[in-house]
Amino acid sequence: MAVPITPSQTQAYPLLSGIKTPEDLKKLSLSELELVAAECRKRVIELVSVNGGHFGSSLGVVELTVALHYVYDSPRDRIVWDVGHQAYVHKILTGRMAEMHTNRQYGGLAGFPKRNESPHDAFDTGHASTSISAAAGLAAARDLAGRDEKIVAVIGDGSMTGGMAFEAMNHLGDIKSDVLVVLNDNQMAISPSTGGLKNYLVNIPLNKTYNKLRKFVWDSISLLNNELGETAKTAVHRIEDGVKAAFTPGAFFEALGFRYFGPIDGHNIEQLVKALREMRSLPHPKLLHVITTKGKGFKPAEDNQSKWHASAGGFDIETGRNLKPSGNPTPPKYQEVFGEALVELALKDSTITAITAAMPSGTSLDLFQNAIPSRFYDVGIAEQHAVTFAAGMAAGGFKPVFAIYSTFLQRAYDQIIHDVALQNLHVVFAIDRAGLVGEDGPTHHGAFDLSFLHAVPNLVVMAPGDEQELRNMLYTALYEVKGPVAIRYPRGSGNGALLHKEFTPIAVGKGRVLREGSSLALLGIGTMVNRSLETAALLEPLGFDPMVCDMRFMKPLDKELLDTVASRCTHVAVIEENSTIGGLGSGVVDYLSRTHPGIRIEKFGLPDAFVTHGSMSELYHEIGLDARTLSERIGEFYRAP
Fold first, then answer.
1. Which of these, 425, 406, 428, lies nearest to 417 by C-alpha position?
2. 39 catalytic, yes or no?
3. What is this structure's pTM?
């Protein structure tokens, strides 16, 4: 049940406060819809200025969202939001206005659509290019059941560069099911979109002759609901087809079986409502091309769309100025350490190349892009292609480094196995956002990479415990490994380790002892190395003398170190920020249970469940990976009979 609207909200948002469901929106006039859009934009800016979240994308679809809910009948009609990071206004208009202050907060609303949160959220989303496939499935289910609800997929923010979108469109054009695809074209993903399709889409709205003819055709089509005869209707459609064939090379979308309409102004509510009403009456696959501005209505976001794709919050809503206290300087982010190290190495080695899937700034490969643009490749939101592209570069004698978030690498698993590992090609995977990522929640947590990479032959998998170790591991991956190698590292700032200019190679497959001890061993990897040391410090006053090891490598496993641990300890706790199924702990159990059957081993990691969203400290505490809870759990494990 929705939280009641407060008096202050009623005063600040006179129209929004009266909208409990989209049905209330339909009672308003078109001029009032403009005011609703202004209130939605104001509310999004206020929310993100405090809580943080995806920003520019939601501001860009304010008018489109208002128009969609004005014309369509959610939740009976199903609206699927690609990625879902642009769905804040959708949430505001579907009964969650009073709860939006909890957006992305622990126990509050999710930052993405969630079916278990509202019947208006037709499909859970968080990754790009899925909306048209989901809409096609919803439409097929509707058709088989004999229902007549409408299905809409809203795709944009670079998601149309993903191959899955075209697979879905190709299929929809074949089955000819009634689905509307709204292409929200802002020429952006997180960073500016790349590729031929982007250029193709941009050129259409810039053609003045096309737009004049399109206006004539559009005005003619709008008369079809009046008293035109069949001959006139056919003539208008032929004119429309001819115009599009002349000015849209290859009539791309129509070749896939879609009727193409647009482009239209995505910030003109009257035009949007008119277009959507026309679309609603057409019983076949159709695509409405909408031109929007990412960050619309907030000048700092319009001026720097990449920076304001998302915000951590704490900014002035008038100027965009950061209001968070500076305090002591924080250590550099892991991604920045990686990006700077890669540039340093690539400036000395002309065979190093850098690859991203539409995330140069998100992975700090923008540093490489600026320094060595000729060897930088942004393939768009196309993770599968990126991996095989890297494989091809490796086969051609180069050293490709593919930087990608852990959660997005999941999308290219077959390519890792079939195109890279099977051929033992020297591709370096720099896996960012490994482990929990906080408020973005389960769609973005890097919970499974150690597990799904563990089973892949030929692949070396390592994780640094601090920033300097990340630099050394990158050097090791490039020069000490001949085949495929993965380095996984977390989101956010490092530990404050002293960074050295020189690179020191690490012996492949070798861990290290950080604290000598006996009886009990804590084996950490990556982010959990420091956590293991913190836990050991809490266990010591309780009478324990824990041995602490930084395993460094999940694959190959340091069996010599494990033999040493087993010779000194009766109990081993493996601590990792990855699923306990299939990760480092599973490898340790496999080896020690065979070679040292008397030793007791327990795995401490992410549960066999999808971890919710919230601050990192809240999430660590919930799953028992904060130092205090770990010390209690490990103490119980040691004392258990």
1. 425
2. no
3. 0.86
